[in-house]
């Protein structure tokens, strides 16, 4: 083995271990293509995701409204049951809201002065 063959061996070995400019450029382009692909897929699904988020917030607000309406309904049902079956409650409501009184009863109302 002479000097030139040994030098040629070192050059070939160096080329195999260190990719040249085009190999590096191919890797960079491959990474950029993958990045672009994932960015495109994300851009396609973003409107669907945004609509889903809007629908979730709307559902939460409707559930809150439903809870409030259920509480109001239960309160009204309780009032109806008390009016049907509780004579004292019925008398209290009649005196307070309708300004009715029993015979021989005197009502005194104290109103606070408005400032």
Indicate the topology:
Blueprint: H1 3-17, H2 21-85, H3 87-98
What can be said about this structure in brief?
The chain has 3 helices and no strands. With 115 residues, it is mainly α.
- Please report the total strand number as a whole number: 0
Can you tell me the overall shape? rod-shaped
Arithmetic mean of pLDDT:
85
* Share of residues in strands: under 5%
**What structural class do helix, strand and pairing data support?**
mainly alpha
| Fraction of helical residues | over 70%
How would you characterize the largest beta sheet?
none
Q: How many domains is the backbone divided into?
A: 1
The helix/strand series, from N terminus to C terminus, equals: HHH
Radius of gyration: 42 Å
First CA to last CA: what distance? Answer: 115 Å
DSSP helix count?
3
Which regions are unreliable across 5 or more consecutive residues at pLDDT < 50?
Answer: none
Quaternary structure classification? single chain
Any overview of this molecule?
The relative contact order is 0.03. The protein has one domain (3-98). The model has no long low-confidence stretch (mean pLDDT 85). It has 3 helices and no strands. With 115 residues, it is mainly alpha-helical. Helices cover 80% and strands 0% of the residues. The protein has helices spanning 3-17, 21-85, 87-98.
């Amino acid at each position: 083995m002479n000097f030139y063959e040994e030098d040629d061996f070192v050059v070939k070995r160096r080329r195999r271990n260190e990719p040249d400019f085009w190999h590096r450029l191919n890797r960079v382009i491959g990474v950029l293509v993958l990045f672009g692909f994932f960015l495109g897929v994300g851009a396609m699904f973003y409107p669907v995701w945004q609509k889903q988020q809007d629908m979730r917030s709307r559902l939460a607000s409707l559930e809150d409204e439903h809870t409030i309406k259920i509480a109001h309904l239960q309160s009204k049902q309780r009032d109806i049951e008390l009016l049907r079956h509780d004579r004292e409650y019925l008398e209290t409501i009649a005196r307070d809201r309708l300004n009715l009184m029993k015979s021989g009863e005197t009502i005194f109302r104290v109103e606070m002065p408005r400032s």
